[in-house]
């Protein structure tokens, strides 16, 4: 298993409008993409930062994962995503070590990427996501996994 880079940081926000206004004020940045992921009960806004991305997450349902996180811990860093060279091998390796995984197998994420989350009980309280880009994204000169 090889970690290639920090693909993105996920940041839970009380609202995307507020988060986008803050990024504009602090850094003069605008989001390059926004998307609602109904299955995860979130709306997301992406800000590219060099080889990585900041992913802001707004909850659309208090019972969703971000809604629960906000209620418990308030806004702030929610997860860190590492890009790996081979996600099937990475998940198999972690499971073989007895590591508790939220995803027992890679699942489809945005943009044709495949992702899996490690349980935060295994990582000192940091929710870690692993991601492998789609071949199409890699061929076009870089992954767009978020
Ligand atoms: Co993510």
Features:
alpha+beta, 2,3-Dihydroxybiphenyl 1,2-Dioxygenase, domain 1, single chain, about 150 residues, 4 helices, binds cobalt (II) ion, 8 strands, eight-stranded mixed sheet
Explain this structure.
The chain has a single domain (3-140), classed as 2,3-Dihydroxybiphenyl 1,2-Dioxygenase, domain 1. It has helices at residues 16-27, 65-73, 87-96, 135-139, and strands spanning 3-13, 33-37, 42-49, 52-59, 76-84, 107-108, 114-118, 127-132. It has an 8-stranded mixed beta sheet with strand order 2-3-4-1-5-8-7-6. A hairpin with a 4-residue loop joins strand 2 and strand 3. By secondary structure, the protein is of the alpha+beta class. Residues 138-143 have low confidence and may be disordered.
The number of helical runs is 4
Named once each, the bound ligands are: cobalt (II) ion
Number of strands: 8
Number of domains: 1
Rg: 15 Å
Model regions low in confidence, pLDDT < 50 over at least 5 residues: 138-143
- Sheet with most strands: strand arrangement: 2-3-4-1-5-8-7-6
Approximate strand percentage:
35-45%
Order of helices and strands: EHEEEHEHEEEH
Q: Look up the CATH topology.
A: 2,3-Dihydroxybiphenyl 1,2-Dioxygenase, domain 1
- How would a textbook summarize the main sheet? 8 strands, mixed
Oligomer: single chain
Q: Overall mean pLDDT score?
A: 89
Q: Based on helices, strands and strand pairing, what is the structural class?
A: alpha+beta
CATH architectural arrangement: Roll
What's the CATH class, please? Alpha Beta
